[in-house]
Design goal:
The chain has 155 residues and is mainly alpha-helical. The protein has five helices and no strands. Helix 1 packs antiparallel against helix 2, helix 1 packs across helix 5 and helix 3 packs across helix 5. It is flat, with a radius of gyration of 23 Å. The two termini are 19 Å apart.
Amino acid sequence: MKKTQAIKERLNAHREMLEKLATLKQELEYAADAYGSPRAIDYSGMPHGSGDGTSETERVVLRKVALEERVKQKENEIAADWAELEPFVERLAPSETLVINLRYYYGAEWREICQRIYGKHDDYELEADQYMDKMFRTHGRALLNLAELYTHKTA
């Protein structure tokens, strides 16, 4: 089991990158919404302080531009990271490749993966737990095989 721990940590590190990208995209979406919604105009005629020299709109626009750049950087980082892993993943059995890709490339949750792979089976609803076990066994084999392939690369 120690043998698979390193590759599992490596794959989970990639998955964490996907999660960080998703949170950046959520923040960018919020910034875009804030950018697109003008604030109400104050017609009271009361004087306002000059603040820090930038308006709220300018700060939102600058933040949005910075977030767009961070999203691009994270996407490039993820692509480069997966490019290192993909040759090993592609050498697995097709069912193993599918489970690894769905979990670590696309960032899918276990139930979603199981549904995608086995959901069209007539007995899926009744036997969902058995299908989940089957999927986890496939994942375990994939980790063992990946660990073997990956350690030969570094050796």
